[in-house]
Write a sequence for this structure.
């Protein structure tokens, strides 16, 4: 039996220090971002990377995550810098690598994964398939169609090292924000939810109904929001997922709600960062499984904005100009444990 620790963290504006005139056009279109990035030099980036890496190395009992999903990273290069920091500060050596896709989001921020190459390989449906064909790919990007580009839904197919008989799929999400108002922006999150549900169904059609699918992300909505329940088809009831004839998902964060904390703060704690699983993680006798109560919000007090004055923990963000003491992100990281049956 094996156990895998999978984490997710919105890293909050993890931009690189590329000169402004060399940045991608999409980043240059963001109003006032050039002014903010003038304060974003190598020293600020190095400090933020050190802060993030320290928390990541503390995960999983000090062993670090086996898979880490992230969002709000500008490019592959800055994520590789973070991985180098993690490796440098790790107590347990890890062979981490990055899988990343440059999406068209107009803020220039992407969804990506860090994974341990000693534990996982990428899975393709047909190793002999023509290069570039769907059957020969291990990652897929699904754009959410709206008037302007938004973050894609990023799929990566993994398998335990050297074992093609045990594939599983992870889907990283960063849905449109509530910045323009909760209800004004809700249709865009519903679009993202419909897109997610459609492609979960397609994954099951291609790889089998019982393929384990792990969905994670910053959904900018809570588990009880319409986008999650009515359109992403998430549920708090295991039996509903097992008996459904549609791509229903079990939302693992429900048992943690009501505890006086969340993963994000806006006039109070909110559960924006969630894990959901398909029936492939729930069926009797399946190789991979996950306990309903395995979801956790990682919230040591050093991640709090002000643990002395606040009744509830609020994440301490880093901001554009490093604070004293320096922060981390405006989201708490979250994690689940995936287990296997048999050898």
């Amino acid at each position: 039996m094996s156990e895998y620790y999978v984490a997710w963290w919105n890293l909050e504006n993890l931009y690189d220090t590329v000169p402004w005139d060399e940045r991608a056009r999409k980043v240059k279109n963001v109003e006032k971002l050039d002014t903010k990035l003038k304060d974003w030099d190598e020293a600020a980036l190095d400090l933020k990377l050190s802060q993030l890496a320290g928390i990541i190395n503390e995960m999983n009992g000090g062993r670090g995550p086996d898979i880490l999903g992230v969002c709000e990273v500008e490019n592959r290069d800055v994520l590789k810098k973070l991985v180098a920091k993690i490796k440098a500060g790790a107590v347990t050596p890890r062979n981490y690598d990055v899988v990343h896709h440059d999406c068209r989001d107009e803020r220039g921020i992407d969804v990506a994964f860090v994974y341990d190459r000693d534990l996982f390989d990428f899975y393709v449906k047909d190793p002999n398939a023509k290069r570039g064909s769907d059957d020969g790919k291990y990652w897929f990007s699904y754009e959410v169609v709206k008037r302007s580009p938004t973050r894609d839904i990023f799929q990566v197919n993994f398998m335990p090292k050297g074992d093609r008989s045990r594939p599983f799929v992870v889907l990283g999400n960063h849905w449109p924000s509530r910045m323009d108002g909760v209800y004004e922006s809700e249709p865009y999150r519903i679009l993202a939810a419909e897109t997610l549900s459609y492609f979960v169904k397609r994954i099951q059609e291609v790889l089998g109904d019982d393929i384990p699918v792990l969905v994670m992300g910053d959904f900018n909505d809570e588990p009880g929001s319409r986008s999650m329940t009515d359109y992403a088809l998430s549920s708090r009831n295991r039996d509903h997922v097992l008996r459904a004839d549609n791509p229903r998902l079990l939302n693992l964060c429900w048992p943690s709600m009501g505890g006086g904390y969340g993963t994000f703060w806006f006039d109070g704690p909110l559960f924006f960062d969630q894990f959901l699983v398909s029936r492939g993680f729930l069926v009797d006798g399946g190789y991979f499984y996950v306990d309903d109560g395995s979801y956790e919000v990682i919230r040591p007090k050093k991640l709090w904005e002000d643990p002395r004055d606040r009744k509830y923990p609020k994440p301490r963000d880093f901001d554009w100009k490093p604070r004293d003491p320096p922060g981390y992100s405006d989201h708490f990281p979250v994690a689940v444990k995936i287990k296997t049956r048999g050898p």
